[in-house]
Amino acid sequence: MLEINNLVVDIEDKRILNGLSLTVNDGEVAAIMGPNGSGKSTLSYVIAGKEDYTVLDGEILLNGENILELEPSERAAKGVFLAFQYPLEIPGVATMTFLKSVLNAQRKARDEDELTTPDFMRRVKKAAETLEIDQEMLKRALNVGFSGGEKKRMEILQMALLEPSFCILDETDSGLDIDALRIVAEGVNALRAKDRSFLVITHYQRLLNYIVPDTVHVMSKGKVVRSGGKELALELEANGYADYRELAA
């Protein structure tokens, strides 16, 4: 699914990723953990194609294709989806208009027919019910006036509608109470499939109690310094990151 080899990335002449390598297999849920400033969010942005980052070396292969030269929209059409830590509010853009435009734009990029309005409405209604998103939320401008939990549920709704093959969750648990975390996690777990992989970025074990990973990778100073099973997250929760800062030094 995804293979990253020796990725070196700067922003404003500051080294953020320093020879990072990582593999996420088909159907795998891989968790990335690490201290603040280790490069976790930068990794998510570079995979998705966010501007401002300078890639000095390495490659990101999605199903064998190096996607570094592709625009963000092209990466999205090939199946990459990023759920942001802090989803943006977009005043003046109706949520339903946004969802339909994005969904049909991706379908067009894949040479698929655009959805009719009735088909689109049925898909949204089904996904929204799973995520406990009421119809009033869907009538508002995108994320405007939403709580933190509502914004995160809206991100997962987009993911459910777009059906990407590689999903990145950048600290999705940030700012969520227990009820909102449960709802978001259930939405993610419902999308787990043998042909869909996840990269879950988090500081804390609690998210991984709900979205149980197949593998856990520890980042420090811009590289992966240790990998293991789900029990590694429990070790990190108990002992912290001090030992891994020394490994990356």
Automatic annotation (TrEMBL):
Q: Which organism is it from?
A: Chelatococcus asaccharovorans
Q: Does the keyword ATP-binding apply?
A: yes
Q: What is this protein called?
A: Fe-S cluster assembly ATP-binding protein
Which CDD domains does the UniProt record give? ABC_FeS_Assembly (cd03217)
One example GO MF annotation: ATP binding
- Tagged with keyword ATP-binding: yes
Alphabetized, the UniProt keywords read:
ATP-binding, Nucleotide-binding
Give the record's family classification. Answer: Belongs to the ABC transporter superfamily. Ycf16 family.
